[in-house]
Amino acid sequence: MNEFLKSIKDYFLSGGVDLVRGITIILAGFMIIRLFIRFLKRNLYKKKNVDKTLPNFIISLVNIALIGILVIYALVLLGVTPDSIVTIFSVFSLGVSLALQDTITSLANGIIIVVTKPFVEGEYVSFSDTEGTVVSISMFNTVLKTFDGMMVTIPNSTITSENVKNYSRLPTRRIDILIPVGYGTDISLLHSVIDGVLATTQEKILSEPAPQLVLKDYGDSNLNYSLRVWVSTEIYWDIYFALTEKILLALREANISIDYNQYDVHIKDDSREEIIVKKEDKHE
C-alpha cells in the first residue's frame, strides 16, 4: 500500500504536474477562444442591415482553426514531439478524409455558396422539394425555416447540385391567377369585372408592367383566362390571396360562373338487347 501511494506521489511530482498544467491551459484556451469569438461576432455584426452570411462562415472557420491550434499546443506541452504530431495529424487527416468525404464536400460547397451567393440569410428560396427562409449558412449545412414553422437542415453538397429558386432576390414578382369561365361568358363583362377588382388594390399593384388579363388556352369545358399583375416581393402573398378572393366574389356578383371540367357519361343498357336476342332465338 505504501509503495502504491509513493508511486502516485512520484507521478504527480514529475509527469503529473505537466498533465495538470496541460489540462489547465486547454480549459483556459477554450475560454479565451469563446471570448474572442464573441468579440469577433460583436464587431462583425456591428452594422445593421448587412448580409451575415460571410461573417458567420468566417467565424466558423476561425473557431475550428483556433481549437486545432490549441490542441496541438496542448500536445506539445504534454511532451509529444513535433514529428509525432505531424505523423498523428497525417494519419488522422487520412482517416477523416476517408470517413467524412461527404462532409468535406459539403465544406467545399459551403465556400462556393458564400462566394457565389445564390442566396443569403433572410431570403426565401426553394430547391428540390424544400422551400423556406434561409436562417443560417454554416460550413457544412444550410438551415431553412419553412412556411409552416419547421427548421430544415440541408447539406451544402445537396444544395449546389440542385436548381435554386430565389424568390426574394428581385424587388418585384408577378402574380398569376387562373380564371376558368364558361364558353358563353360575356368577355367584355369579364374584363370590366376584373378591372373593378384591380381598382380596389390599385395602390399596391405596379403600373409598369401593366396588369394583363389574357386568354391562356381553351379548356375541355371552359375558357382559361390568366390575370397577371406585378407587385413588390414583400407583399406578394398578401396581394395574391386578396385578389383571389375578391375575384371570386366579383364574378359571383356579376353572375359569371367559374367553370370546371365536366364529363357526360352515357350508360348503355345491354341487358335488354340480350333478352330480345334470346326471344328471337326461341321463336325460330
CATH class category of the largest domain: Mainly Alpha
The second-level CATH architecture of the largest domain is Orthogonal Bundle
Shape: elongated
DSSP helical segment count: 9
Provide the residue-averaged pLDDT.
Answer: 78
Please, what is the oligomeric state?
A: single chain
Remind me, CATH topology of the largest domain?
A: Helix Hairpins
What is the rounded Rg? Answer: 35 Å
| Major β-sheet strand ordering | 4-3-2-1-5
Query: Which structural class matches the secondary elements?
Result: alpha+beta
- Could you describe the largest sheet, including whether it forms a barrel? 5 strands, antiparallel
Tell me the distance between the termini: 123 Å
Order of helices and strands: HHHHHEEEEHEEHEEHH
Tell me how many strands there are: 8
Query: β content, as a range?
Result: 15-25%
